[in-house]
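Re-run requested by the PI after the first attempt was lost when the workstation crashed. Everything re-entered from the original request form. Ligand of interest: zinc ion.
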Amino acid sequence: MIIDSHCHLDYSNLYDQLDDVIKRAELNKVKYLLTICTTLQSFERIKLIIHKYKNIYGTFGIHPHESKKFTNIDSSFILDLKKKYKKIGIGETGLDFYYNYSEKRVQKKSFIEHIRAASELNIPIIVHSRDAEIDTYEILKSEGKNSNLKVLLHCFTGSKEFAKKLLDLNCYISISGIITFKNSTELADTVSSIPIDKLLVETDSPYLAPLPHRGKFNEPSYIVHTIEKLSQIMNVSREHVMINTTNNFRKLFDLN
Ligand SMILES: [Zn+2]
Ligand SMILES: [Zn+2]
């Protein structure tokens, strides 16, 4: 069994054919999915999705790209929502200094508000980090200091040093289809240094389709290519990757 720990099923290219997308996922052993929120509008669809499909879980969060449009969303807003809707994670939030669609200051403020809500709720935070390793680490470290903050760093493409720092903070690390790309040898080397009991897998669909589907819209069933690649990198069976990443997901999100 495989769990896709990060997809965006509310995006129209998936949402408009969701029954078929879910059927193809099931045929490829993808039994559970976590659909990740990026905006308030996205949350409206996520509520419908998780109501309709029992094997799909949801989150609430504002993507760092979008944080400038939602400066009113603070930890108390998120805590209020929690009372009304069952979500298992907070995010995606974090820092994206590659695109800088929102000002750094605004991204940091939003990231911290999400972390505070997640600690209060005692549920994991799903973190996006691009070109922002130092700030991401510093914020996670200082905000997590006096709490048992649970962290999932999604779509990891960072340095070996960053991976090590995340592991020191007891974070889980999720690997996307980027690992299948031909130019990902350095990433593969870094990933092979991460203990398998800290790894999760994801598609981040509809983005980042793995080889051999690169360039197309991604969907959860394509996660099998990421599993295959991980099994090669780590020199273990596909079964072993599936069992471990599934167990890690269950442990992190407290689903037993
Ligand atoms: Zn992301
Ligand atoms: Zn995402």
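Saved to the shared folder this time. The longest strand covers residues 89-96.
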